[in-house]
Amino acid sequence: xxxxxxxxxxxxxxxxxxIKRILKTKISNEKIVLIENEFGDVNIDSDFMADNNIQISxxxxxxxxxxxxxxxxxxxSEIITRYNPDRIIVEPSGVGKLSDxxxxxxxxxxxxxxxxxxxxxxxxxxxxxxxxxxxxxxDQIINAKTxxxxxxxxxxxxxxxSSIDVVRTLNPYCNLITTDINELxxxxxxxxxEGHKDNMxxxxxxxxx
Length: 209
Hints:
The protein is of the alpha/beta class. The chain has helices at 15-22, 46-51, 69-83, 98-107, 126-132, 134-142, 157-170, 186-193, 199-208; strands spanning 3-9, 32-37, 55-59, 87-90, 114-122, 146-150, 175-177. It has a 7-stranded parallel beta sheet with strand order 3-2-4-1-5-6-7, sandwiched between helices.
């Protein structure tokens, strides 16, 4: 059965970089469809997609999280019927609500296909964005299985700790990754990405932080 993954994140958080990293794990052997949205971050380049055998379906008439909810649901069903992929990765608009994207999946009667929903958070701006863009930014964190803090390498200790506090206050039960994604072994990153949570994974992530 097709898996549907959602990779959310506020503007400039690093969703595209994260997707590129995930596509270097064993899921690169799967048949994947990436759904991008024109209001998202810089598109993944076409050469990269072609080299990795990935189909792209761009939604061109607005945000899939709001004005295109109906069309988005229809697109998902059509993509599954046409391509029969192993996995669909949805990269929504940076100013979209993760809850709306999840809702659209269920409205398409594809709730059983929903595999994971991830939020990428810029560790240098989490507190600021949480205060000023609550409707969108906080919704993405609250509704995520896994939250990954990007730019931890350039965030001050104070900002990193405040970002962790923001995430844990909004979503105390999510997988929280603060390690650079390029330093994580593929299997650890993929387990965290898909929301698998056990003691061994917790210990590995803590050891790498």
